[in-house]
Amino acid sequence: MLDTLQPQEVFTLFNQILQIPRPSKHEEQISQWLVDFAAQNNIACERDQAMNVIMRVPATPGYEEHPGVILQAHMDMVCEKVSGSEHDFENALVFLKQAKKQDSSLYQAQYLEGKILFFQNKYEDAAKIFEKLVKKYPQYTDSRLFLIRCNIFLGNLSEAEKKLNQELSFNSTDWRIFYLYSMLYGKQNQLDKQLMMLNRTELAIKDTKKVYDNLAFSLKIRKVPKNEIKERVQKVAKILKFLKKIFSYTKIRF
Question: Are 106 and 99 in contact (CB under 8 A)?
């Protein structure tokens, strides 16, 4: 639905923000997203201990002598849950540690711990977790990409670029790779390349959504529940990816 709204750039950013959990008094992730956004767009930015973010944007050429404008907005959201739900928004990390005690090898628990540490700006600690996960589970893309992100924020730009090039060699459709390239080039002050990669990120997101919508169309018409649609589309996507790999070794065009 957001694809039909204008201005599209605004709603693209709005959609990204919607994906970030940000209950009141727990604004770490959205605060980090804002800092990342400022860095990618070369906007002067500062953040205090309370996670408040201030960005200072220069005047539009020709308006330097006009009075400045201050825009203020909340970062948090009011989290609600259905009646009877036992979900605890504030104690998710406690439950995560409990899950690790029961099964220290649980991938999701370790992965989520790494993400939480990252969004708490503990990049070195997060990187150690993702390094272990990549060694143990090299097939999982999410851990590999978060390790690259840690390297970018730790200033290990050469290592980050090396790993991104490796990812791109066998995964050229994942928008997150292009987004990480844009972050990398932003850190290197290569503005032309940064803008190019942001454009490729947007195109990749649109292409991904088109594929999903095409696969899900007939199910939506039949009023199949959303959760079932997602599950069935993911199964088909895995089969198509497997077939594409097989056909890459033959003369068949896929």
Answer: yes
Residue 55, Ramachandran bin (φ over 0: left; ψ between -120 and 50: alpha; else beta): beta
Q: Does residue 51 contact residue 20 with C-beta atoms inside 8 Å?
A: no
Question: What is the domain extent for residue 10?
Answer: 2-56
pLDDT tens digits, one per residue of 156-174? 999 999 999 999 888 887 8
What predicted TM-score, i.e. pTM, was given to this entire model?
A: 0.51
8-state DSSP, 25: T
**Spatial distance between the Cα atoms of 70 and 165, rounded to a whole number of angstroms:** 41
On the question of pLDDT at 29 being above 90, the answer is no
Residue 202 is encoded by which pair of tokens?
Answer: 């947007």
Residue 84 lies in a domain: no
Total number of domains in the chain: 2
Whether residue 120 is found in the same domain as residue 27: no
Asked if 23 and 122 sit in the same domain, the reply is: no
Shared domain check, 51 and 141:
no
The arithmetic mean of pLDDT across residues 47-70, rounded, is 90
Only one residue has tokens 């090299």, namely 138
- Residues contacting 215, CB < 8 A, separation 6+: 233, 236, 237
Q: What is the pLDDT of residue 237?
A: 66
Shared domain for 49 and 138, answered yes or no, is no
